Amino acid sequence: MFEPVTPPAPGPRRPEPLASRLRTTLLRTSRRLRDQRVGDLSDSQMAVLGQLVGHGPMTPGDLAERERVRPPSMTRIVQHLLEAGLVERNAHPGDGRQVLVDATPQGREHILATRRRRDEWLQRRLAALTREERATLSAAEEILRRIYSQ
Questions:
Q1: Which of 55, 75, 119, 121 has its CA 20 to 30 A from that of 112?
Q2: In whole angstroms, what is the distance from residue 45 CA to residue 26 CA?
């Protein structure tokens, strides 16, 4: 059987390590930003559309590799985006057995509208901070980018 979990002894809590606090805060902030998307696409569908807008046409296999999903999952994602008119399939210029998936003008606008909405959401929150707090966040963004790039 399972042994009961004993609650921690009362007293002052030890502060969580920086890594835990940052992880929690970054995940919660990311979740709130994702909630600001336009339309009803899933996170996976938005990610694929964003890849196409940011990097240009790709084969479904390349998209699956970039998004770390299996090809059948990517096929379903691409099919949904096709039906929504956000992507199109075109013949691969160098390999007649392959197709390239690309964002349509409507797909590009969908991504740009979502980015504008997310930027506006974050800008409203930043506007409530002091100049010094915004400067601190600017410095922290550079540090976080270095962590991400390692």
A1: 75
A2: 22
